[in-house]
Amino acid sequence: MEIVEVGPRDGLQNEKRVLPTAVKVEYVRRAIGAGLRRIEVAAFARPDRVPQMADAEDVLRAVPRSSAVRYVALVMNERGLERALALGDARPDEINYVVVASDEFSRRNQGVTTMESLAAFRAVAQRARDAGFFVTLTVAAAFGCPFTGEVPVSRVRQIVQQSGPLDELCLADTIGVGVPVQVAELAAAVRGVAPLRAHFHNTRNTGYANAMAAVDAGFVALDSSLGGIGGCPFAPAATGNVATEDLAYLLNRSGLKTGVAVPAAAEAGAWIGAELGLEAVAAQLGRAGDFPAVAN
């Protein structure tokens, strides 16, 4: 099971402290040192709305490069793709484009309706694919909207059916309201469109149960952040992601190979928490320790 480390982007974007570029790059280095090989490192977002991502280009220019590591950047529109393309050799390997499942949340997050956002995605995706990017569509708030409540499975299916060709489809529980039965229902509704990835938040303590439901439903990748930091700055009470070290422990102990060394991941999670000035991170492994107490 592939773990996609999203801490440098989705983790940091919701934290109050804006970290220097050098600290973000060190965060990426520590993630690589823990065995993570696919890392979302930046978002091409408006600096006035997401100041934590204002140095996206600088981060991408500075992170270590290796054929074994793939970098992902969030792209919100055509302008974001232009910024990615302008980086040349320092550009990301993949782009992740977010379309929000409910109109109200989409307007607050991106200033457009869901279908307007989806139309923009189709244009950006075609250009990105022609330029050699791997393209992921993330359907945000697929499990529920903080402003309008339940999101029908049929709504998610409609978005996916109108998305055009995809390299990967990610279903995101942006506000952490999902439960395992929803994971199974959504997987059944979109199966066959593209390889499936899931993005869970642990707001209501269901994130890890949902992760295992995603494993059972055939998802091939799961998002998480070291320390369990992060959330969505445009969604009320959207607390952190599932923690990479906790998720890796769960998957490793379940016989699924992640390539993640839990002790190193826990150390990285504690380190980024200290850099952010947090009294403690949400992850449990830094306190409880791995089991058995040896390196994976």
TrEMBL record:
Keyword hit for Metal-binding: yes
Signal peptide start and end residues: none
CDD domains registered for this protein in UniProt: DRE_TIM_HMGL (cd07938)
InterPro entries: Aldolase_TIM, HMGL, PYR_CT
Entry-linked Pfam families: HMGL-like (PF00682)
GO terms, biological process: ketone body biosynthetic process; L-leucine catabolic process
Domain of life: Bacteria
Keyword annotations from UniProtKB, A to Z: Lyase, Metal-binding
One GO MF term: hydroxymethylglutaryl-CoA lyase activity
Domain Pyruvate carboxyltransferase: 1-266
PANTHER family assigned to the protein according to its UniProt record, in alphabetical order: HYDROXYMETHYLGLUTARYL-COA LYASE
Family, similarity comment: Belongs to the HMG-CoA lyase family.
Protein's name in the database: Hydroxymethylglutaryl-CoA lyase
Natural source organism: Actinoplanes regularis
